Amino acid sequence: MGNKTPICEACFENTGFSYTLSLISGKYKMVILYCLMEFAPVRFNELQRYLGKVSDKTLSQHLKELERDKLIHREVYPQIPPKVEYTLTSRGKSLMEVLDRLCDWGNANRL
């Protein structure tokens, strides 16, 4: 088969592509990021309405992972009732450039 080196899983795991996918994997992460890009700041309940049938647990888990990966910022306001807003970090905004390109490709290549 020519001079191509066989693809190995360990090699793929070390690529920038694999790392990027690990940050945005999950059913709702890219949609959460898109929502924050369009409507920031956004509160938890607003995200739930935007996403539709997502459970509190799933949304909370995805938000924690995005925050851990420094893609979003969680701002807690000390008031009653509690108020929490989410925004993109500068790192998250830089990822949106990549996701915008995916959107452009989808619009140009829709079957």
Describe the structure.
There is one protein chain. It contains 6 helices and 3 strands. A hairpin with a 5-residue loop joins strand 2 (72-77) and strand 3. The longest helix has 19 residues, at 90-108. The model has no long low-confidence stretch (mean pLDDT 89). Helices cover 59% and strands 13% of the residues. The protein has a 3-stranded antiparallel sheet with strand order 1-3-2. By secondary structure, it is an alpha+beta fold. It has helices spanning 9-13, 16-24, 29-39, 44-51, 56-68, 90-108, and strands at 42-43, 72-77, 83-88.
Give short descriptive properties of this protein.
alpha+beta, 6 helices, 111 residues
The percent range for strand residues is: 5-15%
Number of strands: 3
Structural class determined from secondary elements = alpha+beta
Termini distance?
32 Å
Radius of gyration: 17 Å
Sum up the overall morphology in one term: globular
Question: H/E series, N to C?
Answer: HHHEHHEEH
Fraction of residues in helix:
55-70%
Please specify the SSE layout and strand pairing.
Layout: H1 9-13, H2 16-24, H3 29-39, E1 42-43, H4 44-51, H5 56-68, E2 72-77, E3 83-88, H6 90-108
Antiparallel strand pairs: 1-3, 2-3
Helix pairs in contact: 3-6
Task: Please summarize what this structure is.
The chain has 111 residues and is of the alpha+beta class.
